[in-house]
Structure formats: C-alpha cells, structure tokens
Design brief:
CATH class: Alpha Beta
Shape: globular
Strand order of the largest sheet: 1-19-18-17-2-3-4-5-6-7
Structural class: alpha/beta
Radius of gyration: 20 Å
CATH superfamily: Ribonuclease Z/Hydroxyacylglutathione hydrolase-like
Number of helices: 11
Length: 372
Amino acid sequence: MRVSAYPKELSAYLIRGDWMRRNRLSVFVSLATTVLFSTLSNAKSKPLQVYAIDVEGGQSTLIVSPSGQSLLVDTGWPGNKGRDADRIVAAAKSAGLKQIDYVLITHFHRDHVGGVPQLARRFKIGTFIDHGPNLEDSNDPKQDYAAYERVLPGHKHLVVKPGDHVPIKGIDVLVLTAAGEHIQQPVHGAGTPNPACADEPKPKADDTENSRSLGTLITYGKFRMLDLGDLTKDKELELMCPDNLIGTVDLFIVSHHGWNQSNSNAFVAAIHPKAAIMNNGARKGGSPDVWTIVNNVVGPNRFWQLHYSIEGGAEHNVPEKFIANPDEKNDEGKDIKVVAQKDGAFDVINSRNDFQWHYNLQLEMTLSGAAK
C-alpha cells in the first residue's frame, strides 16, 4: 500500500493558531476549491513521468512525456553483466515503452555514457543527442567516446547547442549548456540579479568533460525540471552571476551526484527548487557540504536520495523513507519516480517502500494565505 505524507502536511497547516481554529470552515472551503479545480484540470491531461534510475553513482534519468514519447538522460556504467542497462529497460517497460525515442548523453564520462552499447543491444533507441565530440584529452573519455561512436550508425544523431530545443512532443526541452557554452539570454521570466553571487568564491576552471555537460530545462505547463549533468561550479556561475538566467525550478536533479565540484550555494539558492533528487551512490557523490546546501535551500521533506551516503553519515543524509537504497549490503537498485501535472503539482515516490510526498504550489499558497 502506498504511504503518503500529504495528510500530515495539511494537518500542520490546519491546526496552526487561534485564528485558524476560529475560521476552520473558511479554510476548508478554500482548500476544497483549490483541490477541486486542480483535480479537474489534471484529469484532462496526462502527467509527465520521471524515473531517477539507480545506476550506482552514475546517472540515468528516464522522462516520459504525456505524448508517450520518451527521453533518457545518460545510461550509467558499462560492465557489471549489463546491470545498468537492465535497470533502464525495466524502468522503460514499467512505463509502457517499446522504444526510447531520444537518448541524451550529457558528457562522455564512463558513468554517463558507458552503458550505451549494452542498452542498444537490449532495447530499441530512436535518436542519440550529444554536445558533439569528446573534448577531454585523457584516455577514459577517449575510449568511452569511441565505444559510443560505434553504436551511432543505424540511429539518428543530433548535436545540439545552447538555445536549441529537443524535438520531443508534449514537453519543452531547452538546451541550457553544451560543449562549455551556455545560453546568453535569460529564459522567459528569469534574468533577475542574484544577490548570492557576492559571497560566492571564484571556483577553479574545469577542463574535463564535466564542464562541457549538456544541461537541459524541461517544462510541462507550470512544472519545471532542471538537469545539468555534471556541470561544474565555474560553468554554473556563468548561468547565475550576476543575473539568474534560469529562474526557479520545481525539481532539481542534483548536479554531479551531489559532489562539491558542482552545486555552489549561489546556484542552488537562485534556482530554489521545491524538491531535489540526488543520484548518488553509497560511496560516490553526496558530499556533506553539498548536502547541507541543498537541504538548507529545499527544506524538510523535499530532498530525496538514491543511496544512503557513507561519507555523509547520520548528519548528512535525509530520513530513511526518502532514500531509495539505504542499505549498501542489500542494494536492490530501487528508483525514485516523479509524476508531474500540467498545473505544476507533482508527486515524488520511493519505489522501495511506496512512500510518497505531494508538492502543490497552489495548495501551499492557499493554506499559507489562510494561516495569516
């Protein structure tokens, strides 16, 4: 049975203060009206589905548009008897897919592109998307890019640049960064000065594929999701300082598995996500300082992890019910699913225990306003 924390969230609002107790009827009427209109609106449209797949500290995120078309961001590791490819296929089949329409490779590091050959042997792929050739002069990326290139024949292939849109039906996928470049104009509604820039130390320049990550902003109605791959701090701040070119988002796929080469305070504070998912491994990613930044920005009950972080310890991990794989010794490869509606409301669901949390901006505004 699916466990939802949503009723507790409402209760916290509904029992607050003498004014609330004297005016409970008006609060319930306002709440019921908000929920009714939201439900009726969402009933007319299919949701956007997102699967944060566990690839043990790599990345693989499956996005299924309401149109039925699909986008996979990265493919995890090679080897391991096809473990990551098998998990991706399982998620795709769970979503009712017979093919993955687009596979987007953020950059050519092994934990992101390494699973391509095994996945291509197991499941039909339509189009590959990337930032162009590997730009890192080291052996592993060269080898992994060569393996990727061998899979491309027989598939469509798109090379994109900042400002381009991935041609998937039903959602808007805007390319923000690629091959070390970034958008020059703010997206609609963004562009305000970022006061957090003043206190942000200048980071070192990064010359690896991380800084060349192909980052995207995915929009479905009022719902906005940000995934920048392993984009490093120097490139994050180009999007954030002096002005925030992205604006705020609903869901943030924490960059670089939660490592502190990425996720500067000036960046995370400016995008101010309503919820965040960290695709860390038990012993990869999840830096305590990054965990603290993200946790402080999103607040309680809004931060989810694919693994318990050994480095983080008791003080730098979310409560167990928000972790898909809390036990390193009994790792089941569980994922975290997001179901987003066109009005901006969304649910995050832990597949291990079916625990879920509902995020609804309209509802929160109604309750917050009633409490004043």
